[in-house]
Amino acid sequence: MSGIKTIDKEIVVNICPDNTEGDIINLSNLDVQLPEKPKSSDILYHKKKKKDQRWVRESLPLELRKIKSMDDWLEMPDIFRNKYHKYITQEYERRRKGVWFYNNGEPTYITGNHYFFLQWSKIDVGYPSFLSFQRDLFIHLEACIADNRCLGQVYVKCRRSGYTQMSSALLVNEGSQVKDKLLGIMSKTGADAQENIFMKKVVPIYKSYPFFFKPIQDGTTNPRMELAFREPSKRITKKVKTSVKGEALNTVVNWKSTTNNAYDGEKLHILYMDEAGKWEKPTDIRESWRIHRTCLLVGRRIVGKAIVGSTVNPLDKGGRQFRSLVKNSNPNERNENGRTKSGLYSIFIPAYEALEGFFNVYGHPIVEDPDNIIEGLDGESITIGARTFLKNERKALVNDSYELNEVIRQFPFTEDEAFRDSAKSSVFNVQKIYEQVQYNQELFPSPVVQGNFSWKNGVADSEVLFNPDPNGRWNIAWMPPPELRNKKTPENNLIGVGGVDSYDIDATVDGRGSKGACHLYNKFNMSYPANMFVAEYASRPPLAKIFYEDVLMASRFYGYPILIENNKYGIARHFEARGYSHFLLDRPSHLGTGFGTKTKTKGIPSNSQDVIHAHAQAIEAYIHSHVGLNEETLEYGKMYFEKTLEDWINFKVDNRTKYDLSISSGLALLASQGPATKKEKVNFSEKKFFRTGRLIIR
What is the pTM of this model? Predict the structure, then answer.
């Protein structure tokens, strides 16, 4: 039997129905073992020349096309039925086990669901072609089904990947075999579930089946609400029969309107959640999944599976919730029960591996530019690779950040690109931020080290040390040389400063509340990395004083003064009590009258409109000059903190409280702006000044 196995101390998911052991492949952090390769004579197309070996659908024999129901079949003479008994048995076997076929000389395995999709799942555009990326999706889904720790698959897709047709085919294939089951469909709206999936995909696929795969059915030939495999009250029509002989499956495939609790209380065999990245309020895909996952469980035992897939809306239109679901579905991150946080396994396939018009006749993607013209699966010539094509599309929109962002999100190269936010919803230049994000992702090794600061030997006020730790609260991109560290006064203020978004209340029991955030920033200077954020902190320790001490240690380690918001004075009291108040910057006087004059009050007011606008302008100016690609120098910025970049993308001026990292980074930038110096009057009467030609020599 298929299922999880341990091979060389590594857990793999075996998907072979006969429990054989073949090659192991990795799909999105999941090791999957394929069935053992059979002998050559048992592989389809073994008699063909290599160049002619490719997937070709076999048509239903002509004599069998005339038979519309099992009742008609049973009325045929034995000699006729014996003639096709082997063929029908073969199709049932392939439906269960899948098949191997030669594809340009390469033995290729497809699952039973994939075979049924290719061979028997017809919609208005006809039968599908073999595409290698869809093979990966079907194998990954088969692994999700075989793994008793997994609740299903979640796929971050690009446009027109065929996933809806694939999922619909699986619903019909599975629903027409199992007894006493419920298979459900949800989409971004009830209308989408009914019209675009059930009526345009599920029903036509079922109608395309040959008679021997059609169980006893109740209802009309074109159902609108459910596909019901139960005892009918009457035949469907006089001409089109449904079998009334034999035992009914009592299985139903239906759809429901999109609510958080649509199937709550039901026991589901399969749940298909379509366009999960586009569900908007009041329906939340995270909440809906939290409720509906219970429909797939009986106690700790998993009795059903989910299929979840979507392109992604902007973050404020359902994308953020879907991203959270995907991030919680990484097979590399499991709890002690062996499950991911969501229970699902995520998979992502780059758009250039799934782009229409860029597949050769063997169903393989043409990703890179070919040396010679290649015949495409659609009969058209392919002269450039899919990656180049998509890059050209992006290049043409470089001056239209909104359209560029839309193209990137719909045809992503990476999972992060799929979750890009809309440029229209961001205060700042999203394109430059995403340029920086992409650049950072390609850096190896990463310039950022994670860790914590601590007092040497646990002795406060002694020497601050930095300790690398993959679970640390600090991200560090640069450290001062040893001779500049551990200053008892902020004497490195000409090099850098800090900004802090603090909190005064200890963490709640459930961990809710804003995080403490801090940034250390290097100003313009000639000796050390300049105009660069060098440290980032975004965490909420259980006690606020832990956060305060973290900031204090970092300030002392770097010798940088910090700017706080004076409405949260807990951190100021902590610094004062520890004898470090001199590390806190006073309210700046150089930012305009709206900020008030210099006072004894530490920090800066958070509710002044002048402060709010200056804060946003400081970040905007920094992004313009130091983030993304510099068109003049052709160099990228040195902003390496992914959390802060994401926070800038989502930042809202009228709702600043949620964006801790934006607040602290903006405060650091404001702190770095030195007061305007008064121009010294030149007294030309002094003897040290005299004119010689055009020069004033001092």
Answer: 0.77
